[in-house]
């Protein structure tokens, strides 16, 4: 029986039930009202207002420059569009690392000013104090391990993480620590499929993968990537469901042609 089909509003509790029922969780990113409306209508379980907005919406090379105010702007646009999905909002770089008091006030601003339902934070044991403080205010937290793009300058590259035993063991310990502190789910990004499946087996909270194989409890993709709007990003883990880049280009060319030739607007399109 499907847990999610009968649900009017997806909550963290529903996601937990889906894991126990073996029902896969679907998550996509969303950054604006119009796109979020379509994603929610399609019946997605979770919309992540990802700090990937820094790349796909603002054109930055990394996720580091996006600000708390900008994340709140994107998140509030998404929240206004959504009836059913759980809306999770990324805490941006610099808004939670190293200072749990500041982490709490950043999370409170996100919840109060955007109306989002939960926050996501990158990191393991090194940010437990911040996570714990946020949880005490009743704000649900999703973890994020493996490739954590906010630490790109520490890693140096976007290659697959935790291929070596040391890093894999640390990742498993981190996942257990996030579960123990009270996170409701964890994103695992770009790690070996076997390791991700092991984590999904060993922890009782939902594990959502991106480039982490099929043995996890759900999947997430960046919506611009899966629609093929961005034609410069082609990692192995990405399945493109459309080539919107090409289709939009054709439409824009046709519009330019129609205006230049005087074909648009015609009589029916005029008052
Ligand atoms: O910001 C984002 O889009 C993310 C996903 C890639 C999980 O964190």
Describe the structure.
The chain has 271 residues and is α/β, with parallel strands linked by helices. The protein folds into two domains: 3-240, Alpha-Beta Barrel (TIM Barrel); 243-271, no CATH class. Helix content is 42%, strand content 14%. The chain contains eleven helices and eight strands. The protein has an eight-stranded parallel barrel, surrounded by seven helices. Helix 2 (33-42) crosses helix 4, helix 4 runs parallel beside helix 5 (100-114) and helix 5 crosses helix 6. The model has no long low-confidence stretch (mean pLDDT 97).
Unreliable segments of 5+ consecutive residues = none
The CATH architecture assignment of the largest domain turns out to be Alpha-Beta Barrel
What is the string of helix and strand elements? HEHEHHEHEHEHHEHEEHH
**SS elements, strand count:** 8
β-strand percent reads 5-15%
Major sheet: 8 strands, parallel, barrel
Q: What is the share of helical residues?
A: 40-55%
């Amino acid at each position: 029986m499907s847990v999610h089909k009968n649900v009017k509003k997806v909550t963290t509790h529903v996601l937990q039930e889906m894991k126990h029922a073996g029902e896969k969780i679907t998550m996509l990113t969303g950054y604006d009202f119009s796109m979020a409306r379509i994603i929610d209508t399609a019946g997605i379980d979770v919309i992540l207002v990802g700090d990937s907005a820094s790349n796909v919406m603002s054109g930055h090379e990394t996720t580091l420059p996006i600000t708390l105010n900008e994340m709140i702007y994107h998140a509030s646009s998404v929240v206004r569009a959504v009836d059913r999905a759980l809306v999770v909002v990324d805490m941006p770089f610099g808004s939670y690392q190293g200072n749990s008091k500041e982490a709490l006030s950043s999370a409170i601003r996100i919840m109060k000013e955007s109306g989002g339902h939960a926050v996501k934070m990158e990191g393991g044991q090194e940010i437990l104090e911040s996570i714990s403080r946020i949880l005490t205010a009743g704000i649900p937290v999703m973890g994020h391990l493996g490739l954590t793009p906010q630490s790109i300058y520490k890693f140096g590259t976007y290659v697959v993480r935790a291929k070596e035993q040391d890093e894999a063991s640390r990742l498993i310990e981190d996942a257990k620590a996030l579960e123990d502190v009270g996170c409701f789910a964890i994103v695992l990004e770009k790690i070996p499929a076997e390791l991700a499946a092991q984590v999904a087996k060993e922890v009782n909270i939902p594990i959502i993968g991106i480039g982490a194989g099929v043995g996890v409890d759900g999947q997430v993709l960046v919506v611009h990537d899966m629609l093929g709007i961005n034609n410069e990003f082609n990692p192995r883990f990405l399945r493109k469901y459309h080539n919107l880049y090409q289709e939009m280009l054709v439409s824009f060319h046709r519009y330019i042609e129609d205006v230049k030739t005087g074909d648009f607007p015609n009589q029916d399109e005029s008052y």
